Amino acid sequence: MPAASQIKFLYFCYFSQPVADRAIYRLVKRLKPSRILELGIGDGSRAKRLIEAAARFRPAAEMRYAGVDLFEARPADSAARGLKLKDAHVLFKQLGVKAQLLPGDPNGALSRSANALRDNDLVLIAEDQNAASLEQAWFYIPRMLHARSVVLRETTDAEGVRSWREIPRDEIDSFAAAQKVRRRVA
Q: pTM, whole model, 2 decimals?
């Protein structure tokens, strides 16, 4: 591995901004993910760094990235900057990774694509995701995981400090089971 790549990876892990994302890059070293799903791409900077970090451990051409985002449908009054769908395609093409970009909210996008997005090593859920849509989307997430998958959800505490919390598999299964019951009742 070239020294420049090593330095860049160390920068991501210990000096990059936002601080909360550093934990993700360190997790990449342990997981060496080949399949990544991200709910909420935002401006694309985290996805770009994530793929560059993962490419240190395997060729980008062997990786598969799936991103769910509102893209152009993001509300105009939204505080978060968003990436346009066309710009996202350009970004992932430059990175050399096979990317599947799914416009829409988590429930709508995953209801259409969950069976095609199996065996993800890493799933990231950004804080800006619509809570009601995400609650319904939990129904689809277990079928997109394997035994060693890691699911991280972005949170902000009372002081405004962002962090990523790993969601245990039993919690994911209980969220999904709750949605299964709701679907039967409806």
A: 0.92
